[in-house]
């Protein structure tokens, strides 16, 4: 069993920095940030990206927001860990305070 990361391209550099800090090396599949305002297109891109993970993947960590409710109706055989954020800007503005 393994873990992968599905990331908005706006967050990829941050995800890589976090992996370096945490000494992990999960595979990252990116979603193009330019489609955040098209939820239906984004939803199909998410489904395509999920299908790209190796067969033994049991957990996908999501590094993106909801962007127009693009996650509605998405299902997968394993565990999806999705932050409860409206979009990636909210994630980028978060501090540890």
Description:
The chain has three helices and four strands, in the order βαβαββα. With 97 residues, it is an alpha/beta fold. Strands 2-1-3-4 form a four-stranded parallel beta sheet, covered by helices on one side. The longest helix has 13 residues, at 39-51. It is globular, with a radius of gyration of 13 Å.
Structural key phrases:
alpha/beta, 3 helices, single chain, globular, 22% strand, four-stranded parallel beta sheet
Give a summary of the structure in a few sentences.
The protein has 97 residues and is α/β, with parallel strands linked by helices. It has helices at 12-22, 39-51, 88-93; strands at residues 2-8, 28-31, 57-63, 79-81.
Indicate the structural class: alpha/beta
Radius of gyration, in Å, reads 13 Å
Total of helices: 3
Give me the strand/helix succession.
EHEHEEH
Question: Biggest β-sheet: count, sense, barrel?
Answer: 4 strands, parallel
Cα distance, first to last residue? 34 Å
The whole-number mean of residue pLDDT values reads 86
Percentage of residues in DSSP E strands: 15-25%
* Strand arrangement, major sheet: 2-1-3-4
Total strands: the figure is: 4
Give the CA-based shape: globular
- Contiguous low-pLDDT stretches (5 residues minimum) are none
Helix content: 25-40%
Multimerization status: single chain
